[in-house]
């Protein structure tokens, strides 16, 4: 059974600081996703990581994937208040590219001024 | 661009009542999905449809049925609602482009309370 675990589950940080969210998954998968969710809102796609060593960056967020370690990281650089949200990683559960996602529990990020 | 549209946004049901959540996408995607999100948790897949005319179970299908009416529409039905089905329901769709990776687009969510 595929399990996806994120840590930490809650993160409170000061503006300007750096931090990393970790996403571990238990079996091999072809792709890993990162999403952002604001309270009461839908999910916004941040990154899709397709291969070992993949690194993608958008603004202050950078995601990487190590398929051998079954680990993805979401690194936040110089956090700003607008990044406050819940971040989910998700792994494709099917064989190949199915879109059937198993989600982590989410990491709630609170950035304080 | 409408993207993925769900209705209704909010619904309160009594135990044992039935209802259907509607979902439509205007992106010509083949694949559609229904997820539920419980407080403090990630989303869990209920059912999915890889293409028009096909449906299959996800992680938590018990108590639900689905219909892929056409390429655009994918509905989720609760035949006899139970309090354990109180949740936020998200419909999603994707083109599943393997080489470039696929973005899975989510609707705005439907808040369902069963009392």
Task: Describe the secondary structure blueprint for this structure.
The complex is a heterodimer of chains A (113) and B (115).
Chain A: E1 4-7, E2 10-14, E3 19-25, E4 32-37, E5 43-49, E6 55-58, E7 61-66, E8 71-76, E9 85-92, E10 101-103, E11 107-112
Parallel strand pairs in A: 2-11
Antiparallel strand pairs in A: 1-3, 3-8, 4-5, 4-9, 6-7, 7-8, 9-10, 9-11
Chain B: E1 4-7, E2 10-13, E3 19-25, E4 31-37, E5 43-49, E6 56-57, E7 64-68, E8 74-78, E9 87-94, E10 104-106, E11 110-114
Parallel strand pairs in B: 2-11
Antiparallel strand pairs in B: 1-3, 3-8, 4-5, 4-9, 5-6, 7-8, 9-10, 9-11
Write a structural description.
The complex is a heterodimer of chains A (113) and B (115). Chain A contains no helices and eleven strands. The radius of gyration of chain A is 13 Å and the shape is globular. Chain B is mostly beta strands and 115 residues long. In chain B, the strands form two sheets. In chain B, strands 2, 4, 5, 6, 9, 10 and 11 form a seven-stranded mixed beta sheet that branches. In chain B, strands 1-3-8-7 form a four-stranded antiparallel beta sheet, with no helix packed on it. Chain B is globular, with a radius of gyration of 14 Å. The N and C termini of chain B lie far apart (35 Å). Chains A and B meet through strand 5 and strand 10 of A and strand 4, strand 5, strand 9 and strand 10 of B.
**What's the tally of helices of chain B?**
0
Structural class category of chain B: mainly beta
The secondary-structure element order of chain A is: EEEEEEEEEEE
Biggest β-sheet strands, sense, barrel of chain B? 7 strands, mixed
> Spans of chain B with pLDDT under 50 lasting ≥5 residues?
none
Shape of chain A: globular
What percentage of residues of chain A falls in helices of 4 or more residues? under 10%
Order of helices and strands of chain B: EEEEEEEEEEE
Number of helices of chain A: 0
Overall shape of chain B: it is globular
This entry's quaternary arrangement is heterodimer
Record field, number of beta strands of chain A = 11
CA-atom Rg of chain B in angstroms: 14 Å
Mean pLDDT level of chain B: 92
